[in-house]
Amino acid sequence: MNESRKDRLKNLAESEQYISGIYNYCDRWCERCTMRSKCLSFAIDPDLRMEDSPRNDLNNEKFWQGIHESFELTFELLRESAEERGFDLNFVPDPDYERRERIRERRIISDPLLKTTMAYAHAVDAWMDERKALFGETATRMDRAIEMDLPGHDPLPIAIALHEAVEMIRWYQFFLYPKITRAISGMEEGEYDRMDDVLGSARIALIAIEHSIGAW
Ligand code: SF4
Prior knowledge:
Layout: H1 3-14, H2 40-44, H3 61-85, H4 97-109, H5 112-130, H6 132-148, H7 156-173, H8 176-187, H9 195-215
Helix pairs in contact: 5-8, 7-9, 8-9
Bound molecules: iron/sulfur cluster.
């Protein structure tokens, strides 16, 4: 484990500069975020600062390497913290716990809202794929119009608006599923002590839906 990264994380986590857990209730669009100076996640991961970073690309190995390193670091810090507090992480108080958790997970992922959310994400892919050629033609037409520089006709604002809309739809397409899962999961019986988390997750999902509708 990279000791300097761990120490740096500990030092940052102790700083009062950051708002606890703010990164759980945002849309992860760091480049556009006005709360970056208050965000621990942004401070510890410089790659988050670039929209086109390979660490933000699900299909890039660096994305998964980043996830792997974060998990490794988290487990190590968890182990250290448990040791300091005298907790045994292998202690299983309820042997039936895992079975109940699996049932609960199945119940959550079969929620109609989540099914709709995933169907929407795939529908966006299908819609965009079907119109790939059209998008290409439109871009070529706009390039030509910009080159021609006709008086009284400026296609640039339309090109920018189109780009913005597609970018926004794509950004939120798969973002909704984990946020709604988190909200529904917290709503499960007996977890009302997690209501702040439920509301925070539901709120950012609603914002993402509003932005997506606006973009469409
Ligand atoms: S900087 Fe990024 S991770 Fe942090 S709150 Fe803003 S959008 Fe979220």
